[in-house]
Amino acid sequence: MTAPLLSVKNLRVQFRIDRKNSFDALKGISFDVMPNQTVALVGESGSGKSVTSLAVLGLLPKENATVDKGSRIEFEGKNLLALNNAEKRALRGAKISMIFQEPMSSLNPVFTIGYQIEEVLKEHMGLSGSGSRDKAIALLKEVGIPSPEERIDYYPHQMSGGQQQRVMIAMAIACEPKLLIADEPTTALDVTIQKQILDLIAALQKKHGMSVLFITHDLAVVADIADHVVVMRNGDIKEQGAAKDVFAAPKDDYTKALLACRPVVDSRPKRLPVIDDFMAGRADAMRLDQRSRGVTEADPVVLEVKGLCKDFYSRDGLFGKKTFHAAKDVSFKLRKGKTLGLVGESGSGKTTVGLTLMRLHDATKGEAWFDGKNIFAMSEKEFLPYKKRIQIIFQNPYASLNPRFTVGQIIMEPMIVHGIGANTDERAKRVFELLAKVGLPEMSFYKYPHEFSGGQRQRIAIARCLTMKPDILICDESVSALDVSVQAQVLNLLQDLQDEFGLSFIFISHDLAVVKYMSDEVMVMSEGNVVEQGNADALYAAPKAEYTKKLLDSIPKGLHG
Prior knowledge:
By secondary structure, this protein is α/β, with parallel strands linked by helices. It is built from 22 helices and 21 strands. The longest helix is centred in the middle third of the chain and has 18 residues, at 191-208. The relative contact order is 0.11.
């Protein structure tokens, strides 16, 4: 019988919070990764997935992490927990490599991608000069980077998110490791880029005979590539087995919940069930109550955009100038109390349209009629009263909340700027009301952003927008990086707010299932152009454009179950 390449046995990890308190991040988990096998480690934030990967690599923080003495992590028969630092460094990158979740945080912005790949080759394979450069070019070609001879001298910011992730994969496979750990490598990527990355990892696994430990919060993503699935929650393994068995007949209620709490393209319940609804047996009843979507000519128009164009310029040589057309002749109507979904790949122009409507970019051409006025033709002073009526929720709540301000200060700040509320007490009272509205306790007022989870931070961002009592809310990828259950909670919150206040949403996302669930109308964009638009149900049922069909075909199969 073939021995496992990696065997995790009774792994217990404890983190110290302070002198008296600690918590168990892993509570005695065990699983194997066989040679040439892809194992998916699946669960929500806090389940212990990433702690497991860091323990395998020997990267747990020494200051506050303790691994139980009875734990073992065996790789090729050696206990990794017993290795010294030099032995761990020799192993990492050579025999065990890792692809991290966020390439822009993992790639050094001041070095070219070629330099960073060659650094790995020099460290572990002793290559240098033209030998390391040629190997780096070959690796870029292998992971599908176009014109690798030219791109090798690019800096990370000159590449798209999907290309940056491919560079990370090239670095990870540079030394032909026996085990590749992929930690959420597709979380914030477009559906088509996500499919390309998943196909690439699967192809490289077969070509190089690697084993892959694939970490994700989304079971649907690994439906096609995993041989074995390990489902985790709160530091425990709830279920594990062959992927086909887990997908066909999940045994644990939590596994069933993870599979089912994402929106699907053929159903639109009024409220999305979350994990707790499944565990309490409420989910089936909730799914029966469906929400009607769509627009008619009778629905009043709150915003009409005509011929919106946005160009960006860059230097070309000493005196030349390059023009990039980010948005080309974009026109649409947004109706009161309705949601317009904007979908397309990175670089399609979705976010550019949103930021231009906010006047964070100046339109090159076009008109945007709001309340009888063309907001593109206004001066900054004239636009100021309209600013509070069009608000935006950004993708990353970690970056959009000031870490030095308490939540109370963050939410009160726009009220002070726009003169809302007579005094501090009146504003504070409004903040407490909004915190309750978005499902956060009163104590949140006094805390700082770092004390909250990603989903809670996104709720804080929503509360900040609501201080302005906006007519239009632009949601720019505002749920794309959240766990499936937290995502469902935020989407339910947005629906509740729309029903209560009659808000109009422009919902920008690369996730077609989420867009279908939220939208009355959908506009599909590609390379700055509007490819197709229409009522959501009709467009998804019978897309006319080949590009739209390609996007729909890229949805992971697990989402349809």
